[in-house]
Amino acid sequence: MARHPKATTAAINAATLLMAFNQEIESVANNVRNGNWQSIPKDLLATGTGISNGHIDSTQAAISVASKVGAYAFNKIAKHFAKFKVM
Q1: Separation of alpha carbons 14 and 12, rounded Å
Q2: Helix 22-34 to helix 6-20 angle, to the nearest 10 degrees?
Q3: How far apart are the first and last CA of the chain?
Q4: Which of 24, 37, 45, 72 has its CA 20 to 30 A from that of 85?
Q5: pTM to 2 decimal places
Q6: Residue 76: what pLDDT?
Q7: What is the pLDDT of residue 4?
Q8: Helix, coil or strand: residue 51
């Protein structure tokens, strides 16, 4: 990681965060757009973990985990390729 500039690392990390938390970001944006400020924490929990009103939505939980695993893989692969010099 020491071979590539800080700006490249910051860009990769920012893209990783957007990929990992895309559903949570969308949930907050929808609530802000609709003026539902009070439901943001509840919706974040439901979107991020699949737990809503005491019930577990396994599909939502699987999508959330897949987003985070995919983002982690993207981060590692992007940082690996960022080490190479571009001519």
Answers
A1: 5
A2: 70
A3: 19
A4: 72
A5: 0.76
A6: 95
A7: 53
A8: strand
Quick one: which of 3, 20, 26 has its CA closest to 74? 20
**pLDDT surpassing 80 at residue 86:** no
Residue 11 CA to residue 81 CA, distance in Å, equals: 13
Report the sign of the C-alpha dihedral through residues 7, 12, 13, 17, in that order. Answer: positive
Integer Cα distance of 30 and 37 in angstroms: 10
Contact in structure between 76 and 69 (CB atoms under 8 Å)? no
pLDDT at 25: 86
- What are the sequence ranges of the domains in the chain? 6-82
Neighbours of 24 (CB within 10 A): 18
Under DSSP, the state recorded for 42 is H
HSE at residue 21, side-chain half, CA atoms within 13 A, is 11
Residue 85 has pLDDT above 70, yes or no: no
